[in-house]
Amino acid sequence: MLLALARGDIADYVGALFLVYIILILIRVLMSWIPRMPYNPALRAVLDFIVETTDPYLNLFRRIIPPIGGGFGLDLSPMIGIIVLYILRGLVVALIAG
């Protein structure tokens, strides 16, 4: 029994992947508000995964717009990154769905 995927199904999957990445960025932002996380190997592995997954994308925007302010700089890269992802998500899903 073969299951065929329609273009709409593929568009839904791609849209879901964009949404997962946006959620990872939001978790990354929340992590930055907690100064000290208690050490737990499992928690550390999850947090390191989130940082290693989101930082390459966010660093693209950090090169263009560095954090604003002094020692407690306001990093706008997550906000800009999420806006760009929403725009790309809309374009890519619309192109796939046809």
Describe the protein's architecture and organization.
The mean pLDDT is 88. The chain is built from 3 helices and no strands. It has helices at 7-33, 41-64, 77-97. It is mainly alpha-helical and 98 residues long.
Supply the key terms.
mainly alpha, about 100 residues
Question: Brief overview, please?
Answer:
Helices cover 73% and strands 0% of the residues. It has 98 residues and is mainly α.
Q: What is the 3D shape?
A: flat
Number of helices: 3
Low-confidence stretches: none
Distance between the termini: 27 Å
Category from helices, strands and their pairing: mainly alpha
How many whole angstroms does the radius of gyration measure? 17 Å
Sheet with most strands: none
Got a strand count? Answer: 0
Percent range of helical residues: over 70%
N-to-C SSE string, H for helix and E for strand: HHH
* Overall average residue pLDDT: 88
Percentage of residues in strands: under 5%
Q: Any chance you could write out the topology, listing elements then pairs?
A:
Blueprint lengths: L6 H27 L7 H24 L12 H21 L1
Helix pairs in contact: 1-2, 1-3, 2-3
